[in-house]
Design a protein that fits this description.
Blueprint: E1 10-15, H1 19-24, E2 32-36, H2 46-51, H3 53-58, E3 66-70, H4 79-89, E4 93-96, H5 102-114, E5 122-127, H6 130-134, H7 136-141, E6 150-155, H8 157-164, H9 176-188, E7 192-195, H10 204-217, E8 221-224, H11 230-236, H12 241-254, E9 264-267, E10 270-273, H13 274-285
Parallel strand pairs: 1-2, 1-8, 2-3, 3-4, 4-5, 5-6, 6-7, 7-8
Antiparallel strand pairs: 9-10
Helix pairs in contact: 12-13
């Protein structure tokens, strides 16, 4: 494989102003913790929240969740300081809020370059505004430019509903067309895609249904607002035993000497192409 994949089944937002939650973050069973400096932190607490970042990263453990920092927009009074503080901690990613177009990603990338930030730091883009939806194609194209750092699109369903007035029904019927556009654009750019949050963290049955719908739409995982949602998300976005067995059979078949160099082979009466091999390898990398 030309790209290594990490699971992003469960991506939990943790307010950077909540010291108790931050202390638990490196020990959680989610795939990613997003340390939130933006929506979850009041303006009066922004500076204190930012100052907690080094301690959080000092406490990270091997095998723990990836750590991503959601910064405030660069156009805000806190954005530049957030980005510099996040870059100094060398997170796995920096989540940019309210991305309206490619210029927002490129501006963050230029700032990171000016700070001589570690090239391994990736950028994630929140798609949560009407402009962001309309500019999905140009934003996602940056995923093909390694220098742009873009690695993931994140659906911001609450803000999309607020900005457009679309009704948030339990089946999300009015949001689904936009969610599918996010997945389609992410795939065109070689990016991961994460589904939006489920606001009622007490109703785990409703949450499980959203996870199943999100996986059926092609999302890689779901953003979460409560630790109780971690296990259902991990379960929903993990491959089933049948999927694992099929993927292993495809990899094993292509590895046979008789199939060396072939672009299409036959397995059990079904034609299997190299694209299926790539899909199988990706699935097995997440097991």
């Amino acid at each position: 494989m030309s790209k290594s994949f990490r699971p992003r089944r469960s991506v939990l937002y943790v307010p950077a102003s909540n010291q108790k939650a931050l202390a638990k973050a490196p020990l959680l069973a989610c795939d990613v913790v997003v340390i939130d400096l933006e929506d979850a932190v009041a303006p009066s607490a922004k500076d204190d929240a930012r100052a907690r970042l080094p301690a959080v990263f000092a406490g990270r453990t091997a095998g723990g969740p990836d750590l991503v920092v959601r910064v405030n927009a660069l156009s805000s009074p806190w954005g530049a300081d957030d980005l510099a503080a996040a870059a100094a901690c060398v997170p796995d990613g920096i989540l940019l809020p309210k991305v309206d177009g490619p210029k927002d990603v490129l501006a963050a990338d230029d700032t990171l370059d000016s700070l001589y930030a570690d090239p391994a730091i990736r950028l994630w883009a929140m798609i949560e505004t009407p402009k962001g939806m309309l500019n999905l194609g140009p934003i996602a194209e940056l995923g093909r430019d390694r220098a742009a750092r873009l690695a993931c699109l994140v659906a911001g369903t609450n803000d999309l509903a607020k900005e457009t007035g679309v009704r948030m029904t339990p089946d999300r019927r009015w949001l689904i067309p936009w969610l599918q556009q996010i997945v389609l654009s992410a795939r065109a750019g070689g990016l991961d895609a994460l589904d939006g949050v489920c606001n009622d963290f007490r109703d785990l049955d409703a949450f499980a249904r959203e996870c199943d719908d999100g996986r059926a739409m092609g999302f890689d995982g779901k953003t979460l607002i409560h630790p109780a949602q971690i296990e259902p998300a991990n379960r929903a976005f993990s491959p089933s035993p049948d999927e694992i067995a099929e993927a292993r059979a495809i990899v094993a078949a292509f590895a046979l000497p008789d199939n060396a160099g072939k672009g299409v082979i036959q397995i059990g009466g079904r034609m299997v192409e190299l694209l299926h091999l790539a899909q199988a390898q990706r699935l097995l990398s997440l097991v």
